[in-house]
Amino acid sequence: MKHHLRWRIALPYVVLILIILAGLTVYVSNTVRNTRVEDMEQGYAEEVHAFATLIDNEIADGDMQALSVSVDEWAELFSVRVTVIGMDGAVLAESDYEPSEMENHLSRPEVIDAIELGEGSSSRFSPTLQENMLYLAAPVVHQGVTLAIARVAVSLEQVELEVTRLRSTIFLATLVAMAAALLVAVLVADRVTVPVSKLDRAAHRMAEGDLSSRYYGSSRDEVGRLGETFNLMASRLQIEVARLSTEQGRLSAILNHMADGVISISNEGRVRRLNAAGERILAITEKEAMGRSFARVLRHHELIELVQRGMETEAEQEAIVSSALHGFYLRAIYTPLGDDDIESGFVILQDLTMVRSAEQVRRDFVSNASHELRTPLASLKALVETLRDGALEDPPAAQHFLDMIEDQVDSLTQMVRELLELSRIESSQVPLDPAKTTAADIIVPPVERLMPQAERAGISLRIVLSDDLPEAEVDSQRLHQVITNLVHNAIKFTEPGGHITVSAQVVASELVISVQDTGVGIAEEDLPRIFERFYKADRSRTGGGTGLGLAICKHIVQQHGGHIWVESIMGIGSTFSFAVPLRHDPNQATAMA
Ligand code: ADP
């Protein structure tokens, strides 16, 4: 570019100088030549007149011999060619050639002029002599009668030589001037092109992505001002790009932390963005989804139709979409982006699966609670009616019925207590009181309390603990409750002669406590629901349980920031385990389901 511009500036000057010098050369050499020829014309004009007056007698006498001698003498004396032409154009005498061999000369311009005007001159190329010649002619007058035309011819070779020499001098001067002009033009051009190429390099760096690229120049001319404007533009661009990338980063962070899936779709119907929630819901990574058609990413006909409708109508669309295959239950909203050139719009996917399952849990809870309450209330009603119908008259029977009524009231009270307990834990009304406790202090007291019950049921209950277990920062009272519930269940669901083992170990900075029994086990289909409120795996064997114990356990463990799980094989036994972090972190408590 630099060279290009340099030569574009320099060349016109050089060409201009060349044209001027060429014109000057032609003009000067022509002028010099003409002046010289004119001078010669004047000099030789007098000479030809003198010669004409000299030979009139010889022609009048017809003395061709004498004429020829005069011609030769004259020619030799003045180093010219002399010709005498008769009025009929025939050459009468000639100094350099044989007159009889020469053609008729009447048509020569100088001859015509001499006859008509009394004098004639002409300069032209002589085919006879093969050079430029100057011809001058004058009439030979004898007693008032024109007898012939005398003509003198001189070579213009000398003049031509001078003109040629002059031309080569000028040509040389032209060359020197050209070189000087070229140098000056290039220097001048460089003064302009160097800052321009600096600016060009700066702009090039910027085009390649280096936004810190600047123009450093001192010139105060247009290029300098252009450079300043460029720098100003670059700074603005840098600030703007930084602002946009911060904005973009913020937007990305927001998008990726959103619970709702967001898919942005281009005007050609291709996926341009997919946030983390969207990846989870649609089970596809952003990388895989990028650039694909939205239909291949959404893979659900209702979602695809929703987007198609939205793109066609350019109006917001909303639908509740559920898919057993994809395992989602969603509210999908398509929002068009109006006159955006790149993006057509975006789809928001609100995962309602949790909402729906919470709804389901609430409905189940109400129906389970009513069911659990209805059974003891119905027996109470029956017992009271039996008493009223006459059992009161029979004191031993009345006593028996009253005992049964008390049992039912106790079990109702227990259920209400557990429900209250659960609701208090769930609403975090009972704050934890963590303190450093050994594994033995967590496990031994509740197990010992249940030892007599195990013995009565004919079950061996033992604790397996190693000495090197570290202390854990837990609320031991609450964990006693968990262990009591688990061991109590193990006793309830284990046949006499069975074994229950309570053990503890540390796995990845968590204290893991397990209650293993050789009881009836839990069917595989019940395992995922066992920790739900009121859930009883085998209603015929619950032994009057409320179905709330494991739900309470789960909540207490979660309050500690831990988790609880079960492994079980029907007929072999079950192992309930829970893990709590060794160090208590109030922020770690998992959200309670
Ligand atoms: P419940 O008060 O009925 O024991 P839980 O929430 O403690 O309520 O237990 C829920 C259900 O889980 C029980 O009804 C039972 O079906 C099953 N279950 C709990 N522990 C055991 C166990 N150790 N062995 C077999 N089944 C168990």
Molecular structure report:
This protein is an alpha+beta fold and 593 residues long. It contains 14 helices and 17 strands. The strands form 4 sheets. A 5-stranded antiparallel β-sheet has the order 2-1-5-4-3. Strands 7-6-10-9-8 form a 5-stranded antiparallel β-sheet. A 5-stranded mixed β-sheet has the order 12-14-15-17-16. It is rod-shaped. The model has no long low-confidence stretch (mean pLDDT 87). It binds adenosine-5'-diphosphate (ADP). Adenosine-5'-diphosphate (ADP) binds next to helix 13 and helix 14.
Q: In short, what is this structure?
A:
It is built from 14 helices and 17 strands. It is of the alpha+beta class.
Which features would summarize this protein structure in a list?
single chain; 593 residues; alpha+beta; five-stranded antiparallel beta sheet; 14 helices; 17 strands; binds adenosine-5'-diphosphate
What's the β-strand tally?
17
User: Percent helix among the residues?
Assistant: 40-55%
Query: What percentage of the residues does DSSP assign to strands (E)?
Result: 15-25%
- Helix and strand composition category: alpha+beta
What form results from the Cα inertia axes?
rod-shaped
Helix tally? 14
State mean pLDDT (0 to 100 scale): 87
| Widest sheet, order of strands | 2-1-5-4-3
Unreliable runs: none
